[in-house]
Design goal:
- This protein is mostly helical and about 100 residues long.
- It has one domain: Serine Threonine Protein Phosphatase 5, Tetratricopeptide repeat, CATH 1.25.40.
- The chain is about 80% helix and about 0% strand.
- The two termini are about 25 Å apart.
Length: about 100
């Protein structure tokens, strides 16, 4: 987060990628901490305006959170909101609106 706050998004991305790799190796791909790390990487990509990459990762996070937590869990709803934000930023307004209504 420090790198992001300083506008050092590439450094933040590298840190998030290292963290995600460690979480996946030690805790597994579906562990809540791994999913949080994945979401942080998506946010870092979003801040670099790499929206396509961010969107794909956010879709993966959402899918995994639905499986791990269920559809109504706050973690799942937060992932839906993040994806809706990214969709809206890419003018995918209908899909974003659908997600926002289901949150």
């Amino acid at each position: 987060m420090v790198f992001s706050r300083q506008g050092k998004y590439e450094e933040a991305e590298a840190m998030h990628r290292r963290s995600l790799g460690g979480y996946e190796k030690v805790l597994g791909a579906e562990h809540p901490d791994t999913l949080t790390s994945m979401g942080n990487l998506a946010l870092s990509l979003n801040r670099q305006k790499r929206r396509d990459e961010a969107m794909e990762l956010e879709k993966r996070v959402l899918s995994l959170k639905k499986r791990v937590f269920g559809n109504e869990h706050p973690e799942t709803l937060t992932a839906m909101n993040s994806l809706a934000y990214t969709l809206r930023s890419q003018n995918e307004n209908q899909e974003a609106l659908f997600l926002m209504r289901t949150c």
